[in-house]
Design a protein that fits this description.
Layout: H1 2-10, H2 14-30, H3 34-37, E1 47-49, E2 52-54, E3 58-60, H4 71-75, E4 81-87, E5 100-103, E6 108-111, H5 120-129, E7 136-140, H6 151-162, E8 168-172, H7 189-208, E9 214-218, H8 224-237, E10 241-244, E11 265-268, H9 272-286, E12 292-295, H10 301-309, E13 314-317, H11 319-324, H12 327-343
Parallel strand pairs: 3-4, 3-13, 4-7, 7-8, 8-9, 9-10, 10-12, 12-13
Antiparallel strand pairs: 1-2, 5-6, 6-11
Length: about 350
């Protein structure tokens, strides 16, 4: 069915289509018609990671549902987990429109949304209203007006607020669309940020008598020295997991594209090799000491399986859903199941 709907959605600008797609999924879910747009993946593919048990290894990446307004509709599709956000302490409109651009020939998107969201309190109200009770990641960031010297305050505020309702919390320092944010990945800044978060994390574990894993999401635009520094920092801080990766500012893969010079992060098929290389590099550096989540450019089941082969315990999708529809989730789960069965001789 999505193949018939997609031309209508692609006739709209990307951000309007995004909004209408989520609205349509909500209508389908409330009407009991989700099966008309998606087939939930089969069960019995549970994965253990970060001390949590995921019903299947394929999740939804942050960014699709920034405010946690559509958890019931998205949950009905059968994701192994859903990550919402990025959320900031205070509401902010993000960058001026237009700020999302489709590149259909490359199965890609450029976005410079800029952490547009209604603020952490609004997100928490939405989560509390939802009926879905699956594994929920909440992705946190800093407000654009907060200088990097005070970024820790924003991250601590969000961590404290979301902790009771999250299954895990992701620290996003890798979006290219908030000025200076990626500087927090530096060898000097990152240990200080992670140290402060980890100290408060331990306090929250004791306070709530529940351990919610703390993850870090990194960029794909890293060199070997930067990856070395990140590996050292996450191990020293005792971070529970790493998400590899966010969008890229690199453009060689779309050099022939008229929109290539639009500012923002590039996602979709052109990101796959770059993000998978970072995933593989971090897996080698970390040596299985913490689980990794592979995200970036997954448009087929084979792509998802390749992320796992590169060292990921879990996979996330986002842009692939825009081009392939909800069926991509089922295809990914089924391909992972098939490859695992072949490896086990089943």
């Amino acid at each position: 069915m999505y193949d018939r709907i997609r031309p209508l959605l692609f006739a709209l600008d990307a951000e309007t289509a995004h909004r209408w797609t989520l609205y349509g999924l909500g209508v389908a879910q409330r009407s009991g018609l989700t099966r008309m747009v998606a087939h939930a993946p089969p069960g019995n593919l549970a994965v253990q990671a970060f001390g949590l048990e995921f019903p299947n290894p394929v999740g939804l990446a942050a960014g699709l549902d920034k405010n946690g307004e559509h958890l019931d509709a998205l949950g009905a599709l059968g994701f192994g987990f859903i990550e919402i956000g990025t959320v900031t302490p205070k509401p902010q409109p993000g960058n001026p429109r237009p700020r999302m651009f489709r590149l259909p020939e490359h199965e890609a998107i450029i976005n410079r949304l800029g952490f547009n969201n209604e603020g952490v309190d609004a997100l928490l109200r939405n989560v509390q209203r939802a009926n879905w009770r699956g594994l929920l990641g909440i992705n946190i960031g800093k407000n654009a007006v907060t200088p990097n010297e005070r970024a820790i305050e924003d991250y601590l505020h969000c961590l404290e607020r979301v902790y009771p309702l999250a299954s895990y919390v992701t620290v996003n320092i890798s979006s290219p669309n908030t000025k200076g944010l990626r500087d927090l990945q530096g060898a000097d800044e990152l240990p200080r940020l992670l140290g402060a978060l980890r100290e408060r994390h331990e306090q929250l574990i004791a306070q709530h008598r529940a351990r919610k894993p703390l993850l870090l999401k990194i960029a794909p635009d890293l060199d070997d020295a930067q990856m070395d520094a990140i590996a050292k920092a996450v191990l020293a801080a005792g971070v529970d997991g790493l998400i590899c990766t966010n969008t890229t500012i690199d453009r060689p893969a779309i050099a022939d594209e008229p929109l290539a010079n639009e500012a923002g992060g590039l996602s979709g098929k052109p990101l796959f090799e770059k993000s998978t290389a970072i995933l593989r590099g971090m897996a080698q550096r970390l040596g299985g000491r913490i689980p990794l989540v592979g995200v970036g450019g997954v448009l087929t089941g084979a792509d998802a399986a390749e992320k796992l082969d590169a060292g990921a315990a879990l996979v996330q999708i986002y842009t692939g859903m825009i081009y392939r529809g909800p069926w991509l989730l089922t295809e990914c789960v089924e391909e992972i199941r098939r490859q695992r069965g072949s490896a086990n001789g089943d």
